[in-house]
Amino acid sequence: MHPIYLIGYMGCGKTTLGRAVAHAASMRFVDLDELIEQEQGMTISEIFATHGEETFRRLERETLGRVSSLSDVIIATGGGTPCRDGMMELMLATGTTVYLETDIDRLHSRLAVARATRPLIARLNDDELREFIISSLNARLPHYTRAAARFDSTQLEDEEQIAATTHRFINQFITR
Predict the structure, then answer these.
(1) Model-level pTM?
(2) Which residue among 11, 27, 55, 176 has its CA within the 20 to 30 Å range from the CA of 124?
(3) Residue 70 in domain
(4) DSSP for 63-90?
(5) Rounded-to-5 percentages of helix, strand, coil across the chain
(6) 98 lies in which domain range?
(7) CA–CA distance from 145 to each of 76, 80, 154 (Å)?
C-alpha cells in the first residue's frame, strides 16, 4: 500500500490520529517533523534559530522525498508542508493525501493548551490565537483542499473518541 499522508492545520490531530491508525492497522507511522528532529539532533525551533528557515525547508523536502517511497505507512506532515513548492504534488503523486478537518473552536481549544510548545503561537493571547488560526487556515485552505480526501478529525479528545475516529478512518481509507 502506498503512503497515506495526513495534512492539515496544526492541532487537527495528524500525529494523534496517525499513531492510532498505524498501531491499529499494523502500519508504520512517520511524523515528518519528529523524524527531522531525530535525524538532526535538535528541535524544529532550534533548527530555525541555528540554521534558518531555508535549511529547515530543505530538510523537510528531502525527508518527505525519502519517506514517500515507503509502503504501508501513515505520514503526518507539518501543517505548512503542503503549502511549499512541489510538496503537495509529490504527495499526490506517491500516495493518498487526507486533509484532516477540525472546526475553529476545537483547533483553538487544542492549541491554547499546547501553545507553549509551538513557537508560532507561544506569545499570543486567546483572541490573537483565534485570529491567527482563522487567518492562517484561510491562507492554507487552497493547498489543503487539493487533498484526495477529507476526514473529520474533530473527535480526538479522549481514548474513546480516538478509538472511534481511528476505526472510522481505517474503514474509509485502509479496509477496502
Answers:
(1) 0.94
(2) 55
(3) yes
(4) HHHHHTT-SSEEEEPPTTGGGSTTHHHH
(5) 60, 10, 30
(6) 4-169
(7) 16, 13, 17
Q: H or E element: which one contains 107?
A: helix 104-114
CATH of the domain at 93: 3.40.50.300
Please say whether the beta carbons of 150 and 101 come within 8 A.
yes
In-domain check, residue 66? yes
| C-alpha cell, 22 | 498505524
- How long is the chain? 176
What residues form DSSP beta bridges with 149?
98
Please give the tally of structural domains in the chain.
1
pLDDT in tens, 62-85: 999 999 999 999 999 999 999 998
Give which of 141, 75, 57, 61 is closest to 107, Cα–Cα.
Answer: 141
Helix axes 14-24, 159-173, angle to 10 degrees: 70
**Cα 165 to Cα 155: distance, rounded to the nearest angstrom:** 7
Is residue 32 in some structural domain? yes
pLDDT, one tens digit per residue, over 87-123 is: 999 999 999 999 999 999 999 999 999 887 777 788 8
